[in-house]
Amino acid sequence: MDIQQQFEAAVARSKELTQRPTNEELLKLYALFKQGSEGDVTGERPGGFDFKAIAKFDAWAELKGKSKQDAMTEYIAFMNNLYQQYK
Known about the structure:
Blueprint: H1 3-14, H2 23-38, H3 51-61, H4 68-86
């Protein structure tokens, strides 16, 4: 199974968790997913009072420069850890 298939399997497994991960864990998953699937963040940082969108943008922006492959590998490892913890 190549890295893309493993990444897709990990994304599917994220929907099988029986407990909700912490907000920090969810932000990390989101950022790694976006970096692994789209690469570096683009566009303007959200403004105003949309704190959730700002937090997601900032988490993704912190990974700027990380390769898609590295982000996918990190997502897979992190998801495996969460799956053991929250299944």
